[in-house]
Amino acid sequence: MNLHEYQAKEVFARYGIPVPQGGLATSPEQARAVAKQLGTEKVVVKAQVHAGGRGKVGGVKLVSGADAAEEAAKGMLGKMLVTKQTDAKGLPVNSVWVEKPSNIVRELYVSALVDRTSECVILMASAAGGMDIEEVAEHTPEKIKTVTVNPAAGFQAYQARELGFFMDLTKDQVDQFTKIMAGVYKIVTECDASMVEINPLIVTAEGNVFALDAKLNFDDNALFRQKSIAEMRDGSQEDERERAAAKFDLNYVTLEGDIGCMVNGAGLAMATMDIVKLHGGQPANFLDVGGGTTAEKVTEAFKLITASPEVKAIFINIFGGIVRCDLIAEGIIAAVKQVGLKIPVIARLQGTNMEKGQALLRESGLAITPISDLTEAAKAVVAASKA
Ligand code: GDP
Ligand code: MN
Q1: Could you read off the pLDDT of 217-226 as tens digits, one per residue?
Q2: In this predicted model, what pLDDT tens digit does every residue of 49-62 receive, in sequence order?
Q3: Rounded to an integer, what distance in angstroms lies between the CA atom of residue 342 and that of residue 336?
Q4: How far is the CA of 182 from the centre of ligand 2 (A)?
Q5: Which residue numbers are catalytic?
Q6: What is this structure's pTM?
Q7: Could you point out which of 152, 166, 230, 248 has its C-alpha 20 to 30 Å from the C-alpha of 173?
Q8: Which ligand is nearest to the Cα of residue 205, counting in written order?
């Protein structure tokens, strides 16, 4: 789960990481009021969406006066913001964050994330902040320094000093930076954050170090014990179908193709997408209905797939190990009867009671083609999607 910048800055402040003073606005008039209240000549108006890269597309504006703040907010609110990190549709801007401007002298990059290879939290820093860190990593990896935190010992001040001196901070700035990194590490361990990113962390003309941007990502599996974080969820920034799927315990990820896939088991789902692609098709989604799936889950999964107008054909690939193929067939038939069917379905049922399952599909009188060979089934669904 992600937070908005303004929410992440609230969390930062709670953990002693300095952030610029500001206020939230959901209307242009409110943006004007916040600008007035801040009392500075200039303010920064920032579109709140779950994506970075806003600066390059007009989602971050430095303006003079309350009138201009209102105008800037008007230009952002109610619109979809498309950045390098969103899809082509973009994300809705329902609020803007209005903050005091900063006298930026340097833009740095810092982050903390769970590194699966070392099974530790790593802290990363670079003097090349304010830009696309993926690009820095690709072209000038020597500009990024990483330290690994030993989970038993926890964060140590010397690790932050190492990163601070690597970025050529002065001694006083390194002291400020060390407090910031202690806060960053605490957010990871206490809030179950899977990533904390500050890009840019700035050094001001006054010699202060603080977070100008804030990105926080949380481990969904830990949200049950992070009530205050979970309450900050903004569904408007998330994929509707993925949220609906989560309610039924289905693993669903929206993709860009036109073949709806319904598969049991994440590994089989990956293999299914591979074989669809191998034969020239494009999956519309990744969907794992789970190993021990039920007819009800199959129905919900089917509804989810057919709700996407882009889907031109459906590929069902179920291995009956724990679950029986005839039960799956019943689920498919029930689902089709419930939601209707306007597009071809290719069903590959393998495993326990597969003959019975295939017979049920064949005798249902519905436009479902059972094919038991995986390659044949994949070729058939790709052809159906292009017909
Ligand atoms: P992002 O583009 O979505 O990552 O948004 P950021 O919050 O990182 O802002 C993008 C850029 O806007 C920063 O890298 C800064 O260069 C600039 N910016 C943001 N706030 C200020 C500010 O208070 N003063 C000035 N001069 N520039 C700012
Ligand atoms: Mn940023």
Answers
A1: 999 889 999 9
A2: 999 999 999 999 99
A3: 10
A4: 21
A5: 109, 197
A6: 0.84
A7: 152
A8: 1
